[in-house]
What we know:
Blueprint: E1 2-8, H1 13-23, E2 29-35, E3 42-47, H2 52-61, E4 66-69
Antiparallel strand pairs: 1-3, 1-4, 2-3
Amino acid sequence: MDVLIFKTSVANVQEASRVNYLLSGLSDIKKYNFDLEDCDKILRVVSSGIEPQTINHMLAIAGFTCEELAY
Length: 71
């Protein structure tokens, strides 16, 4: 399993629900969550082989930006 961490422009629960709809349709994603309390509005994704560009694309479809963070 891979863990990807992203800084996002998602600001609140309502916006996160728009992204949840898209991410829940990707079978390679095992688990994901937002930390909207963090100043970077973190999105953590646990997956089996999904590329960061796929997550970038999904958030862009929903109207948000994201940037993968190294950890």
